[in-house]
Amino acid sequence: MNPVPAALPVLATPRLRLRALEAADAEALHPTLSDPGSMTWWSHPPMESLAATRAHLERNAASSDWRNWVFVPREGGSAIGFVAVGEKRNGACELGYMIAREHRGSGLAREAVSAVLDHLFAAEGRRRVFADTDPDNLASRALLERLGFTLEGRLRAEWETHIGIRDSLIYGLLRDEWLDARPR
């Protein structure tokens, strides 16, 4: 099994800096995590208060099963989104992400997720990354497909969420697919 690093490395892209999630990011992420539109496809309802967001982020930051990077503009500022990686089995991990509404369509989510994929495949030597998304989450599906993920299957009635029983689409990406497609 690939060991999880003790501390998350800071990752940099042309426009972003990705660092470990902290409970102090609650103020910046609360508008997104409490927004019903942003949380439609999430596995839990919008956060009801800043205190609930802070408690949620504290649990996530302390999790031994998930690693959470927040991304901030390279020139400075507060968190505008996050990328989470869940350890699932030897060499394979699950990917999740979210970006603030005002930054959607800017390419920043793709940039952040790409940086994490580079790290997982090149630095950690993972063999597979997968994502679980709602069939109606067209923006997430489009991002995964632009990144080279392959739709591998549909799990019927997989999730019971705040919007009802939902199917789940599983997208997968293998190390060689990612590394072969990256610019040299």
From TrEMBL:
CDD domains: NAT_SF. Pfam families: Acetyltransf_3. Keywords: Transferase. Residues 16-176 form the N-acetyltransferase domain. InterPro entries: Acyl_CoA_acyltransferase (IPR016181), GNAT_dom (IPR000182), N-acetyltransferase (IPR051531). Gene3D superfamilies: 3.40.630.30. This is GNAT family protein. GO terms for molecular function: transferase activity. The keyword Transferase applies. Its EC number is 2.-.-.-.
